[in-house]
Amino acid sequence: MSYYKLFAVAILGALLAGCGATPVPDPDPVDTTYGGDDSANTSRAAGEEFGGGEFFDDVEETLGTVIYFEFDSSEVRAQDQDLVAAHAISLNENSYARVRLEGHADERGSREYNIGLGERRAQAVRQILMIQGVSASQIQTVSFGEERPESMGSSESDYAQNRRVEIKYTN
Fold it and tell me: Are 88 and 67 in contact (CB under 8 A)?
C-alpha cells in the first residue's frame, strides 16, 4: 500500500514540475494611470498605425467624448442621445475604429455599488451604439466606479461631473 502512495506522490511531483509558470499577456491592457493623459496618447498612437490618428483627434474635438448622468441613474439623457448617435455614425463609417466606454460614478454609495453603476452606464451607451448599427466587436466597456473622479470636491456640481461615461477611441 505504501508503494502506491509513494508512486502517486512521485507522479504528482513530476506533473507539477513540468508545469512552468509562463505568464499570459493581457490581450487588451487598460491604462490605469490617473487622469487618463497617457491613455489618450496611447490611443492616438495605436490608431495612427491604422491611419486613424487624425480621425480620432477630429472625432474627439468635434463631437465631445463625455456623456453625463443624473444621480443614481444609468439612463442616457435626451440631450446626450444625439452625441451618442454621432459617435455611432463615426464608428459605422470607420470599421477599424474601436471605442472603450469608461463608466464612472460619484463617491456617494459603496465601492461595489458604484462599480456596478459605472458598468450599467457604460452598457447603456453601448446599447445605443449597437442599436445604431455599431458592431459589438468595436465596443469595450469598463467601469471605474468612483476611482477616477473628474472633480475632487463634494458639491453637487462636482458630483455631477463625476457621473459620466467617457468615450475613448482606440485601435
Answer: no
The pLDDT tens digits of the residues spanning 9-43 come to 666 565 555 555 444 444 444 443 333 344 333 33
pLDDT in tens, 80-103: 999 999 999 999 999 899 999 999
Q: What pLDDT does residue 154 have?
A: 86
Query: Hey, what long-range contacts does 109-116 have (CB within 8 A, 24 or more apart)?
Result: 109/72, 109/146, 111/145, 111/146, 114/145, 114/146, 115/143, 115/144, 115/145, 116/143, 116/145
* Structural domain total, the chain: 1
Query: What grid cell was written down for 86?
Result: 454621432
Q: Which domain holds residue 96?
A: 36-170
Alpha carbon distance 135, 129 (integer Å): 8
Domain with residue 138: its CATH number is: 3.30.1330.60
Report if residue 19 sits inside a domain.
Answer: no
Q: Quick check: 170 and 43 in contact, CB under 8 A?
A: yes
Q: At what angle do helices 111-131 and 78-93 cross, to 10 degrees?
A: 60
